[in-house]
Amino acid sequence: MEEAKNKGTVKHVLLAKFKDGVSPEKIEELIKGYANLVNLIEPMKAFHWGEDVSIENLHQGYTHIFESAFDSKEAVAEYVAHPVHVEFATMFLGSLDKVLVIDYKPTSVSL
Q1: Active-site choice (34, 82, 85, 104)
Q2: Which of 10, 17, 40, 97 is most buried, by the most CB atoms less than 10 A from its CB?
Q3: What residues does 54 pair with on adjacent strands?
Q4: What mean pLDDT comes out for the span 70-97?
Q5: What does the alpha-carbon distance between residue 41 and residue 80 come to, in Å, rounded to a whole number?
Q6: Distance of CA 28 to the CA centre of its chain
Q7: How many Cβ atoms are within 10 Å of 48's Cβ, its own excluded?
Q8: Contacts of 64 (CB under 8 A, 6+ apart)
Q9: Which of 12, 62, 64, 79 is catalytic?
Q10: What is the mean pLDDT of the chain?
Q11: Phi, psi (degrees; rounded to nearest 5) at 100
Q12: What is the pLDDT of residues 33-54, one digit of tens each?
């Protein structure tokens, strides 16, 4: 039963606020580097990103969101430990003022 709980799509979500001194060009370069991880790290199945467009002003300073998809919790763990990810994450996190990461399994609600 535990193995079944670990299988199925897992979303890896990162909320970010870049440091004030990071240029728009550098942010674009970092986003392209993040997006390219899907081509370099096999367990990473998909990547999407966006900027906050909410009118609610509840973002708590976070300006960007990055979402990756994986086939299991083990696949996320493999991605996190992958040397290419470790190298990129060190550079990426150095450009951030705030970061929040959540992994979750999308769940439907039956009505």
Answers
A1: 82
A2: 10
A3: none
A4: 97
A5: 10
A6: 15
A7: 12
A8: 15, 16, 17, 18, 27, 31, 49, 50, 51, 52
A9: 79
A10: 94
A11: -140, 130
A12: 999 999 999 999 999 999 999 9
